[in-house]
Amino acid sequence: MLALLLVLCTLVLCACTITYPVDAPDTTEQPTDTDTPVLHGPVLSYISDYTVIYPTRATNGEKDAAMRVMNAIDNSRRPEVDYISNKEEIPHNNREILIGNTNRTASQTAIAALNKDRDFSVSFNKDEVVIAAKTDAALADAVTYFLGTVLTADISHYSVGTVDTQLYSYPLSGFFGLSLDALEISYSTKELEPAAKSLQTYIHDVTGADAKLSLGGNGNILLSLDDTMDRAKYRLEPQDKKVTLRAGTIVATNEAVQRIITKGLGGAAIALEGKFSTPLTMKDIKNPDKELNLVWFDEFDGTGLNGDYWSLTDRMYGDNKKMFTTTDSKVFEVKNGEVVMRTYKDGDKYYTNKTLTTMGRMSFQYGYLEMYAKVPTARGAFPSFWLQFAPSHRTVDYMTEVDVFEIFDWNKMEFTTHKWYFNKTMGKEEHHCWNDPKTTVYTDVDWESLSEDYHLYGFGWTQTEMYFTVDGKVCATVDITNRKDFCQGVGKPAGSLTGMEGFQNPLFINFNNWVHDQASYRTKTKPEDRQWKVTDSTEYPIEYSIAWIRLYQDETGVLWDDLNGKISEGIK
Q1: Is there a cis peptide before residue 541, judged by omega within 30 degrees of 0?
Q2: Which of 173, 186, 323, 325 is deepest in the core (most CB within 10 A)?
């Protein structure tokens, strides 16, 4: 979002050309040798045979800049790195265009002369052109300027010793009334540090100023939690030589900071107040007199997955040898405030995303998990929202699976619970059983609406039952007490049940977007499902979109931070 802000900000560049004698780059005098002939013609015609040089340990921005310049002057060649074994071997007579932070003295000198991170310069020395910038963003601007302005200019404007410095005009000249001298962001608790760092980055990017950070300090920008405020609210107040941001919770603080960043605020000393947009509580669907608290959520409002919550890992397997999974952006993206999973066909092969999962990162016991999503219903689509036991919390000799929903037929969603037994010696499944699937049936109109509009899909879990909801309506319920055990013991007499204790173990979340064809398990094993397979009329890509997901719990619920092996404290 910050990148979008900066693109929208007007880039105003003011040129100030400073000239230097050949042997005295730290002076500002123009060479006055009247015997030197004045050259004319476009700069490009004089430097097209130069070698483009970029750092050995280049950033992606430096590599990209080098390729852009090389393609502009001679696309039959490639840029070269600045590698040398020792400083004595740095060439002095080569004709070079230096890109970014190379090991050449001219690059080092030019970068050191720049004041702010978004400034850049283009220098002309004897047999050497230097494109200098401190950051990738500034270097990209520098190359655009070089290709669009310098290369087409007459060489007489860029005599040896000329330094063309472009100063970036930052969008803000202050921050909520504070001058940019000696800014310091203090935060009252360690949990506010991410918000403080985001604000620090924003201030730097829109003003060029570097704000210090301090925990519990007395800076001129103060972030704090206020237990007298509504938990969802925040308020920013510019005061005399100080700005305070108070909020009832950390998530409300985060929302305030994101509002500042996305709206480009801070240019005027005005108060700011608002409320965390995600509800911090909800009524229990089965017991409206009871209130549940938000403990975990993801609004997918960034440009990538939150690595503390999610990974893309294969969790779904089957007999379909034509199904291939990947993490490529063609099949998986986080954009415009949602996760988008796609399946497409290439020849006789199908490509989709690896499982979107919280495995090894987050698991939970009891509560109400809800997502807002568009679910594909094209013929042959196989979207799923499912949960698995968390291995680190398992207390029984079998593994549990809960399919909140899967699609195997027209106008139907199935809610199913499973037990899996594995033979440790053989390393494969030995026994698998499941309850009779609970089926939700839709009209044709409602069925089409699932893929065209967003709907709420929920999973409720207590110590005695699990249930599935659509748009707040309970569609299926499963008793998870021992009286409803559905699986007899492996190698034991008929009627010897194994208990339902496994359905009390913490679960993690999975999402998949597969397809059914003739090789799919259900297509091969259940005749009634064979009609639900892709045909020549199936349109691709098949898209499954999730706008947000939230978990609410009461006092019985437990949220696990499996990444750090501890119980999470949830929303603060």
Answers
A1: yes
A2: 325
Q: State which fold the 9-169 domain adopts.
A: Chitobiase; domain 2 (3.30.379)
CATH number for 184-275 (one of 3.20.20.70, 3.90.1300.10, 3.40.50.880, 3.30.379.10): it is 3.30.379.10
φ and ψ of 256, to 5 deg: -60, -45
Q: Exposure string (b/e) for 180-205, b if CB count within 10 Å is 16 or more?
A: beebebbbeeeebeebbebbbebbbb
Model's pTM, two decimal places?
0.74
pLDDT of 457 higher than 70: yes
Q: Where are the domains of the chain?
A: 9-169, 184-275, 291-567
Adjacent-strand bridge partners of 245: 223, 236
CB of 143 closer than 8 Å to CB of 62:
no
Query: Quick one: the chain helix, strand, coil %, rounded to 5?
Result: 20, 35, 45
What Å distances lie between residue 120 and 6, 206, 381, CA to CA? 17, 16, 52
Question: Residues 6 or more apart from 566 whose CB is under 8 A from it?
Answer: 560
From the candidate CATH numbers 2.60.40.10, 3.50.30.40, 2.60.120.200, 2.30.110.10, the one assigned to the domain spanning 291-567: 2.60.120.200
Highest mean pLDDT among 2-6, 338-342, 438-442: 338-342
> What is the pLDDT at residue 260?
97
The closest alpha carbon to 538, from 377, 383, 413, 384, belongs to 377
